[in-house]
Predict the 3D structure of the following.
Amino acid sequence: RKEVEQDPGPFNVPEGATVAFNCTYSNSASQSFFWYRQDCRKEPKLLMSVYSSGNEDGRFTAQLNRASQYISLLIRDSKLSDSATYLCVVNPVGSARQLTFGSGTQLTVLP
Amino acid sequence: GAVVSQHPSWVICKSGTSVKIECRSLDFQATTMFWYRQFPKQSLMLMATSNEGSKATYEQGVEKDKFLINHASLTLSTLTVTSAHPEDSSFYICSAFNERKNIQYFGAGTRLSVL
C-alpha cells in the first residue's frame, strides 16, 4: 500500500464549479499535512498546510480526519488558473524535514 | 523571487557522461537539503537527504555511488549523476529546509535527458 494515496483524476470541471480532492495516508504517526500545487514541468509549491480543526484560505478549504487518516481539499468557484496537479503531502516527524508525496490529482478547469 | 535556485533547468547528455546539478538557498542557510526524482505522471520520490558537513543519507534503492551528493556549504548542495544512462532521464528537484520558518522550499527542477 502506498504511503499517500490520491485519486489521480483527471478532474475536468467548468469555471465556477466546486471540486473536492481526497487523500489517505497509511502512517498513523504522520503529524503534518500539506497540499502542494504543481504546474506542468514546474516545481511543487505549497498551497496550504492542513490543520486538525480544518482551515480555509480564500476559495480553498482543507480538512483533516486523523481517525480515518484522510485529508481533503475543496476548491470553490474554480478559476482557469487553478488548473494544475494537486499533491497531498505528509510527514511523520513533526517538521517539514521529510515529506512524502502522493502521486497527485490532475485538475483542468474549462472555460 | 525564487528562494531556492536550481541549475541547470534542462540538460541533454550522452550516455556514459556525468551531469552535475546545483541547488542553492538564496535567502537562508540550509543545513538540510533534499533531492527528489519525478518520472512522468508519478509522484516525487525522495532520493537522498543532503546534510551540510556530513554524508548524505540515501533512500533505499538509490545508489550512492551513482548519485553523488556534496553539501559543502550552508547554501549549496550538488547532485552528480555519474555515468548517466537513458533510464536516468527524469525530472530532478531539490529542496532546502528553512529551520526558522519550518518550511521546505523547492528549486525549479532540472529536466535530464540522456541519449
Remarks:
- The two ends of chain A are 37 Å apart (CA to CA).
